Amino acid sequence: MQNITTAVIQQIMTPDKSVNLAKSKQFVAEAAHSGAQLVLLPELHATRYFCQWETPDNFSLAEPLEGFTAQQLSQWAAEFKIILIGSIFEKRAAGIYHNTALVFNAEGQRVGFYRKMHIPHDPGFYEKYYFTPGENSLGFSPISVGPLKLGVLVCWDQWFPEAARIMALKGAQLLLYPTAIGWDIHDTAQQQQRQTDAWTTIQRSHAVANHLPVLVANRCGFEEDPTHTLAGTQFWGHSFIAGPQGELLQQADAKTEQILLAEIELTQTETLRRIWPYFRDRRIDAYDGLLQRYFDAP
Amino acid sequence: MQNITTAVIQQIMTPDKSVNLAKSKQFVAEAAHSGAQLVLLPELHATRYFCQWETPDNFSLAEPLEGFTAQQLSQWAAEFKIILIGSIFEKRAAGIYHNTALVFNAEGQRVGFYRKMHIPHDPGFYEKYYFTPGENSLGFSPISVGPLKLGVLVCWDQWFPEAARIMALKGAQLLLYPTAIGWDIHDTAQQQQRQTDAWTTIQRSHAVANHLPVLVANRCGFEEDPTHTLAGTQFWGHSFIAGPQGELLQQADAKTEQILLAEIELTQTETLRRIWPYFRDRRIDAYDGLLQRYFDAP
Fold first, then answer.
1. Strand boundaries in B69-129, DSSP class E
2. Would residue A297 count as lying in a domain?
3. CA B260 to CA B252: how far, in whole Å?
4. Residue B170 is nearest to which of A282, A286, A295, comparing CB atoms?
5. Yes or no, beta carbons of B208 and A208 under 8 Å apart
6. Which of A48, A92, A113, A246 could be A96's S-S partner, Cβ–Cβ 3.0 to 4.6 Å?
7. Is ipTM over 0.90?
8. Distance between CA atoms of A62 and A49, rounded to whole angstroms?
9. Is the pTM of this model over 0.90?
């Protein structure tokens, strides 16, 4: 496979799953009609971002790997003949729930899934309460779709160069990040700008370090905290598609639902790795420290 | 130490070491007079970039750790009462030469050195011929200057998130990259732009991933290949100082010799690590793959 036309969906979510899925389907259909061969949806796109607060009731939102949302995704992939990457709140067993990305091929078969490995937990993003971290035995491993190897990661994973690197060393040809990230509305405009820039920069850097294209799908829109404990989250959009030098091919604004579309030359990865041969020079003899939590002062 | 005023020198080098050192001294003096407490010089600032071609004669440019250039740096640090980070072509023994960064405290004492660990080698940057890679026993370790811990790395190291991460896990408070990088003048303006953007992005990303300020000092100016084998290198300047969210505090242009000056709040690192606690969440149980060269397809 030399070239692939990719699409990223940026969407506003509502409390109504059927509304969200109907809108996602419409976006996926439009992307496919515009020539997309691969479509990436945002993290947890079937629901509003329920991790803003902690209640046992929210576990009722979870679905099994073969549940309703997964069935929908499978149907869309087959109907529109595209590779589709979606995201679900997965119920694996009573007491074990994951934040899971699913990959379907253009025949609608699920060819793999990825359970989020790095789990955040901070005010308004209480994910450690809901999600059991993915096991090492499964992630970080690319998912094969025919000849294509997808490095699917999820949201918080985006801040960790380690995850992207391991995917690249295992042969990933694209890095994909469904995500749900936003601003605390009490932050200043300057703080918000710095946060969004940092987020774009770190993900572009995974492209640079590994010479891989990067796709990022975020939600947008404001979602209030129904417990009125926090001020709510303004999800910051800015979804993007970057080429294998981190160059921005497409980027969304902060607030608009939209489809980003970009054709990617997969052969550029090898061209760049010949010019900038980082993989030849990694000091694997000197990286043991990466397996440490911290080096305490003596 | 709460705040520190830092300076980065961007300089054009000539074939004459005494000219280069005299100019560096002038810049260091100006930076100190402007309030800098710490000054970073570019990579191999005493000479032109001799790695453009390969000849045994060039090993004559190397100096011991206590050689002439190091003595000069020591004197300037003491005279101007600043922490000074310089760079030499080090002769360690006949047949063992390194690309070495030196750190002097404000009394002019050498408090540590770093031997470049990742060594490039590609047309016009034939460093594997000249430089023995630094040993694991020495790098990657921060250098202490009083209460301050400096994560000093050199040029090609900048492309490797692994190096920055290990420095951060060992308590570095600043990341510093003396560097010598430029364009092949046959590349298109668009290719040159993508290269410079990638270079800025990857180094800003080390700030983002680790919540550490980053200082980068590059040379500028055109240096021809005296063997006339290659077209020569236009060193691309763009030296910069970034804050701990990767925000650009100062950035130079492509061609002008100059001093960048920025005050850095060292306490911002902990503030940010409380808000974005990546270090809590690193999956050290799942990072073994980072010690692999590659995972060959089965």
1. 83-93, 96-104, 110-115
2. no
3. 7
4. A295
5. no
6. A92
7. yes
8. 13
9. yes
